[in-house]
């Protein structure tokens, strides 16, 4: 018979006759594929969704804002960009009238292309386009003017028809705060009013759709923005809190995919190893019958290919179906429509990935076949006593399995260097754990006689398990570490999204409370935090007369130093502030605390002297502390904090913030409107629902992506337990023949499994705390990482329990009589 | 003519009307039907028969690794059918010593540890001297700390013999003890086993298809057509 | 976007010029009635510029603000004066009123009161603005030896709506009459409509803008007042 024919015949026979042995690897590979397909599809779709969100919230891929009309085409030609579409908006304050009253409003004039991205939602449905007779009002505006859709309002002396009531603007989260109700005109409608735009204190916004912006182009745009009077924002690159949140979730998705693939690799590896250990005897027989080792490897390889193809097809089909169901479910329950992605592409990618990882673990399989000795397997009936240089084989095996992972990581992280480093770290950890475990086993094995028979027996068993034992333990460890890391990172991120992002931004800002009004306000609203605002100019820094030097036109003095600065006085740091240098206590007489960044720009150091001119009076002080402020907190920001004793006597205006619910907020608004019309209230509450919706969306995505790896980890652990059980079956039978009871043997097995899992769980939890801290701090840029989580600890305990239960079930369901277990024939 | 048993001869193993059958895909297969025989204390008995005749099944039944469908087996006057699974385990541990064709040594245990295992399972203190004596008896003084995979087949079977004697059982059951060994080694191992049984005054039931092995026993039973008969 | 010439600007320009002319020629008797007073020998005539960002010189170094330029010009003309900049950016008439006592306590010889722009930008009720400015002037003119108060005329930006703008713009004349203070133009169409006089925000004047304000509207009248005060 021809060699190829033999290979096909035998692999077919192996698969058909011994199909029971392939069930577990097939199942495990299929589930791995399902998870990979699902995670890849979800990640691709979510990343797309997130970048769309970032763009929608900003209103364009690139958005330029300026206080004066400016030559946007000039900017495009300077940066060699050609927008596919662009839109221009003008934002200014004006009054609107109806029959029942007059209302100051924040007017937005939009062109035909508006909105480039996102939706302008009206009570009547989606906004399409405004004709020259139409105007759109928000709810506050329509209430203030007592008008509804279809009614007339006038602007200047021109009449317009209210064409719709605005529910939400696409950019409302990034559009900044508005004092006044919103009114939207179309370009043609605005032109009818014949306002001269050069007279307006207006803000001009240019949004553009530009695909495939390169990093260099982004940098150039930002540079242009910082050099000139206009500001440039780029979707996904902005440093705003929410944009950062979106970026972080995208980065988390990459971590989730990586961790999943590590789990997948370990799982495939364990499955292959299991398959090899159960097929070893058959291989030995084939070898003893004169089959060449290379032929045997080909047979095994072909069999594995069948399994991978089958698992790939099953996994991709189920994974794609699950994805469709899941996106439908997410759409129905959370109103998030995840964009569709190329199923074929990601399906193929998953199969390719699984195949690559299987090939990776096939290399150790090849070595394994070469290590099969027919005499030892058949005559000595030893199946697992591979005591020869396990470490060397182990190193080789591990590295060969992880090479495809390094490639994947490089692809996902878009850097070969980072990808390799990440995987290298995993390898180092993996090998380190294996070596430590091996050394620990050797150590206690030498001292085994100090323990009771059953403990000694466990130690001896573990030692005898050799490579397989070490790999199972290490794999379990890696799986649990990956899982814990994922959960901890997820919790940190959720914490950031929920606490940091949605809660430190106050719900209410109050501007312009006068000294005489302060007490009355605080009496009614003692949960309002107020800050005094005292405008001043810097006249001197370290002996340099700033204003005089500027007046003389000294070029080395930054003109910024000549401007007005708001001073405040207090003795406590805000939650958003930390002292990075100098005295921790601020607000002592004669002392000044300066913002660190400003200090660097202005050459101010600890010990510098400064003089401020406040309404004709000079105030001197020594800089004793430099503060860093988290600008994302939404809390007030001050360059200079002085002592109440030094500047408290000057007339000051107060700025305040609070965390109010809706009832309290309207109470405040009513109170101020009647008693203090000069005080403005800025409510951010209206942002709340949108923000919460977005945070909710992100959390859903995170959760959905974090669940599949859990599934795969559980499966992996099951595989490991089952394969370690099958390796242990005969030993158990021998002990029973010698008079050990079934219960004792079971207890021994359970004790062994639980001890190892528990040990593994504790060690992996410890390691994952470290890893997630590093990921959180240096990759995601989160300020506080989660170090403990009840649910995670509970989850790990459940896994330990699960393993015990699986072991127990395996044992209880193993009804093969002792006689048969000990029969000379192969016993599986 | 059948010799009358002397008064000091006590029956150690009494197998009465034992039947065993298995359910397989092809239906029920009977292995043994109404098998009855008695082995006295101190006797060495062989059970012979062609492959698949049910020798090993019978040994599993006698060794309490399996239970009959019908009939009873009593060892040292104890009716084994009345014992629970745990009691059976204790019984195996104390009263029966096994020697398997495939040795069935505990792979991670050394020679000494393997031999001590039955004692350790019985939760009694291991008497180092007794174990040493057994090791010496089977001629493995220089291999006492070796692991099973480093031993030759003959050596492994010697460990198995020493292990079978370790708990001072009444009955030694050997299943083709020389089956995995070459003739010369098999011969040596068999002599060692018979000698040990004599020295310790044990009862031996050996399963074999080898007539030369059977001929060295006191009595020989033959399984044929589901039934067991004593050869004259 | 196309620039359109519209008739509002014409109206504003005409109103401003007419109003300016009336004030310029009609303000004489108030200046004539100023009594000489004791001034500081070191500081000379103490003038406090009291107002919002237009006084503070928002977006500019201190020396480019109007009080600094006024001091330079008066000094050039040989007068011994000190002009203190007490402008607070973003201040409304209400905040201004709160600070009035603080200003009065410093015993200035002349107070240049330039306030109201932020009220218009925030569309605060005009009656409130009027009441606040009147109260401020009362405090400034209270007590012994009160300073000469000069009210600087502001204008509401065009986009607040014509109705609001008309009421707001007419406010200053009304107050000047009721409170008997000198009214000088400050934010006029002539200076304001020239882009070269403004910062890029379109609302604040730059160095050139303030220079024009000083040269066109302030310096002559202020020289006259200083003359009167120092003519002992």
List keywords for this structure.
heterotrimer; A: 828 residues; alpha+beta; eleven-stranded mixed beta sheet; six-stranded mixed β-barrel; 22 helices; 22 strands; 58% helix; 17% strand; disordered C terminus; B: 232 residues; alpha/beta; six-stranded mixed beta sheet; four-stranded antiparallel beta sheet; 33% helix; globular
Structural overview:
The complex is a heterotrimer of chains A (828), B (232) and C (232). Chain A contains 22 helices and 22 strands. Chain A is α+β, with helices and mostly antiparallel strands and 828 residues long. In chain A, the strands form 2 sheets. In chain A, strands 1, 2, 3, 4, 5, 6, 7, 8, 9, 10 and 11 form an 11-stranded mixed β-sheet that branches. Chain A has a 6-stranded mixed beta barrel with strand order 13-15-20-17-19-18. In chain A, a hairpin with a 2-residue loop joins strand 7 and strand 8. The two termini of chain A are 31 Å apart. The model of chain A is unreliable at 379-389 and 824-828 (pLDDT under 50). Chain B is an alpha/beta fold. Chain B has 7 helices and 10 strands. In chain B, the strands form 2 sheets. In chain B, strands 6-7-8-3-9-10 form a 6-stranded mixed β-sheet, with helices on both faces. Chain B has a 4-stranded antiparallel β-sheet with strand order 2-1-4-5, with helices on one face. In chain B, 47% of the residues are buried. Helices cover 51% and strands 12% of the residues of chain C. Chain C is built from 10 helices and 5 strands. Chain C has helices at residues 7-26, 28-32, 53-56, 66-76, 93-105, 117-121, 126-140, 162-179, 189-192, 207-230; strands spanning 45-51, 81-87, 110-114, 148-153, 182-185. Chain C has a 5-stranded parallel β-sheet with strand order 2-1-3-4-5, with helices on both faces. The N and C termini of chain C lie far apart (59 Å). Classes of the chains: A alpha+beta (828), B alpha/beta (232), C alpha/beta (232). At the A-B interface, helix 13, helix 19 and helix 20 of A face helix 1, helix 2, helix 3 and helix 5 of B.
